[in-house]
Amino acid sequence: MLEAVARIPAGRVMTYGDVAEYVGAGTARTVGTVLARFGDEDDVPWHRVIRASGEPNPSAPAEALRRLRADGTPLGRGCDRVDLGRARWDGEAGAAGEAGETGATVSAGGESAVGRVDAAGDQ
Asked: What is the CATH number of domain 2-113?
């Protein structure tokens, strides 16, 4: 899971549920637990994993928003949540630092369609 989070490019985000779907294991809560326990390492951009409402990490929202702004992540009108329509990353267009148009496909029910990664990290 941490490797998947590390792949999220600057300026883009995934929801907790997106990450779980992307790796093909766990739930949004599982992702939150993993990030709470191990996400403080320097190479894990924990702030790029947000709630489905666009709200930042609930344990450090001010710091998460500071980092998201520094990343150039599109924020909503009140600047207190991410504009998911513009910032959501689907995992398809490359790893962090690679250019390319990205964005998840969102179904009529509001669920995202994101790529999956096997244990070796292949899609």
From this structure: 1.10.10.10
